[in-house]
Amino acid sequence: MMISLGFLAAASVRVSNELGRGSSKGAKFSIMTTTLTSFCIGCVLFVLFLFLRGRLAYIFTESEEVANAVADLSPLLACSILLNSVQPVLSGVAVGAGWQSIVAWVNIASYYLVGIPIGVVLGYVFKMEVKGVWVGMLLGTLLQTVTLIIITWKTDWDKQVLLARSRVNKWFVPESRETNGNQENGA
Are 77 and 64 a contacting pair, CB within 8 Å? Predict the structure, then answer.
């Protein structure tokens, strides 16, 4: 998860820099590079956690009961790792493009309107307990990831360059001939 959060920051900075530079191609390349790299790492961890599901808990405990519970929940953990390898990167892309409010609304809808209610119903009504809550949250994360993929895919990045330029120009203060209160000598 922490690796993906690092990619979130990298994607955000890189996309914002490329848009500010006026390079839609650079922004798209950055998006593909960070997303695919994080996804590949997520796939490796996904497979690792699936293969080690029966032995994973023994790193931390000698209890067979705990190890069985961890083995039972490991597929959900593996799915969480895979989804959370892409979702933060796409959130970083959106933040880098200046869509913070869009990400906030997607998060609210995905988790509070879909993930948590489904998790509560599965966990408590259908008696799936922790698995049900976890499945609900996974569905929320899946919805968030798919939504961000669609938004990113359908974005006109050339238009985003123009929007970034207009945001910069709105706050841009041209340099004056006077610097720090000292008059420059025409040099």
Answer: no
Query: For residue 187, is pLDDT > 80?
Result: no
Q: What angle do CA 133, 149, 91 make, to 5 degrees?
A: 70
Two tokens, residue 80: 């969480």
Model's pTM, two decimal places? 0.87
- Please say whether the beta carbons of 164 and 156 come within 8 A: no
Range from 30-44, 50-64, 84-98, 103-117 carrying the lowest mean pLDDT: 50-64
Task: Find the mean pLDDT for residues 45-51.
Answer: 96
